[in-house]
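Throughout this chapter, every protein is written as a compact record of paired, labelled lines. The reader may check this reading against the record printed directly beneath this paragraph:
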Amino acid sequence: MTKDERVARLLNLIKAAFYPPAGVSRILLALSFGFVCHGVFVAAILAMITAMFFGLSESLGTVPWPWAVLANFILIVQFPLAHSVLLSKRGGRILRWLILGPHGDTLATTTYAIIASAQLLALFAFWTPSGIVWWRAEGAAFWALTTAYAASWLLLTKSSFDAGAEVQSGALGWMSLMARIRPVFPRMPTKGMFRLIRQPIYIAFAFTLWTVPVWTPDQLVLAVFYTAYCLFAPRLKERRFAERYGDEFDDYCAQVPYAVPHFKRHKDRY
């Protein structure tokens, strides 16, 4: 077995889900949630990558102007608002309440992933483009920005894995239900990208916003709004971590910067 606890934990969960205890209704419920969760998740990621690559100049939104301004505003704020609420203690109760029956608690992470993915899919699929294109990269600039854009997404993927792939993808809930076990969350992430900064997921996403090869007013609004969110919203996450992990999180914060790596050598306590 691999020595990397992140991989070992994920493989153990997958193995347990592949050999579930008897229970037809439970298994069908788990598989249904898994199918919906990962289907919407993939659709949302593809919509994000494609829409931002073209600077939000291509989308399915057709709201007439000036009402498109209001529609786009609602689309852009709905994700961070729900994200902040659902990750709170009250939000956790809401997620458990949404699934009737005895499995709401087990499926909470999967339910959250479905909601978050659907929100992102709505934002990037139904944005109404302004029709204004300021700049399209060509030649060497196009390939340089495309490479940076792809690298930003790879960085986001690596950071999400380091944080716990089963949680970030929504698999923890439905696979735990399949295996009829209590969901086990990863320990406080301190490895991989989290050795450099405390918020690599948010910073990597911010990079994706600014490395696109097409620039429009739409992309600029999205980039400014979500960059601000990526810089300030994680403070709420860190409050939850401080309550949950106490001195361990305080020690981690003392060694690892918030968003900008300092690359100083320090004693490895993690």
Remarks:
- The chain has a mean pLDDT of 89.
- Residues 108 and 199 are 23 Å apart (CA to CA).
